[in-house]
Amino acid sequence: MTTPSPADARDTELAAQYEAYPYPERDPRDESKRLLIGSPSHLREIDYWVFGARRPRNQPLRALVAGCGTGDGAIMLATQMARVNRPGEVVCLDRSSQALSIAKARAEARDLPNIRFVQGSLIDLETLNLELFDYIDCCGVLHHLPDPAATLKGLEQLLTPGGGMGLMVYAPYGRTGVYMMQEALEHLTPFSEPPTSRLDIAKRVMRHLPATAWLHQNGNFGDHLNGGNAGLYDLILNPRDRAYTIADFLDLLESTGLESSCLMEPARYDPALFLPDPKLRQRVEHMNWRDKAIVAEALTGNMATHVAYVVRKDERIVPPNADDTAAIPIMREIPGIELAKQILPNCTLPFSFGTLVVPVPLPTAARSILPLIDGERTVGDLAASMAERGMSENKFFTVWKELFSTLESLNRVLLRSAI
User: Fold this and answer.
1) Sign of CA dihedral 205, 209, 215, 216
2) Which class for 263: exposed (0-12), middle (13-18), buried (19 or more C-beta within 10 A)?
3) What CATH number has the domain spanning 6-173+242-312?
4) pTM of the prediction?
5) Using one digit for the tens of pLDDT, what is the confidence trace for 320-375?
6) Which of 6, 135, 243, 352 is the most buried (most CB within 10 A)?
7) Where are the domains of the chain?
8) Which of 180, 182, 218 minimizes the C-alpha distance to 202?
């Protein structure tokens, strides 16, 4: 009898973890109370950041959620598609039978006929006989796999021409304290022990965690630390958990023939936003976007994940020009009238990038324009409405260009397809 390699042993423990503690911990009865919203895989984001607001809304969307867990992303996307009568199907793939059973119960609670479940491993994609997909979600999965690049390349081969993906990987600086805990616990309770035993030891450690432990100082993990057994296990006991700096992540994409169409939110990766000193901003202005992102991650120190929409290299679909009078602005989630209420008297919008709150300057007229955005009015309609209030066309388009550019970079205002 051969001894499993360390990589195989870790993968065996990972599979056991998600059977014992499906993640995230969800109760299907909660589906009647709320829909969890996030990125990636928000339908309006997919339409904009992947398809450039040019894909007809009556064209069926075939999506794969690769490593769906208990179903957050899949339930969100399938529900959004059902609400706007978007034809298509969401296929949920996961190797954990327990996680899939929870996701299925959540779909049943919402009566979602546009969602299908497949049990299988991303490590063995070629054996699953999956068809092609317009969109693939792989959120919080790649960093747990033996060979992330090979799996990502396998997923890329399942994309239709012009398709894209939504990805999330862990980032190191915002996870300060996590890997220290994982190292300590691997010695105290090796990953070869049963998940129930490991969890017991982890809980005991957490009850007596020294005040100096870096995990105490990190405010990024309320969802894990308050997320029951599954949340705690996934945070500090996961047997394979690597993090990617933004440079590492971009290199991973490059190695698999992909490129980012959007790092979420784009403004988060521009250090000029939180470096008001003119001399510093001048230096930032002359940097390429990759170097800007590297500086932003290193300076803020709180990025715990990188979320991106990606497409095949050199295949990005450019959205319509926001100055086009026929373009249709749409609020990503918060209604324009509600976002306008968040603007302070000094015309700044306090915006939270995780635990970092940054005052984002907006044009004075933002409070008047935002409530007009309803997903039906065109940019030309907005200009006409503002003309009735005394704003010239030239003035409107000057203001609109600044307003849209800023709120697009915050993923708050996008464009939708006109067809």
Assistant:
1) positive
2) buried
3) 3.40.50.150
4) 0.96
5) 999 999 999 999 999 999 999 999 999 999 999 999 999 999 999 999 999 999 99
6) 135
7) 6-173+242-312, 328-416
8) 182
- How many residues in the chain? 419
Which two structure tokens, joined as six digits, stand for 18? 């998600």
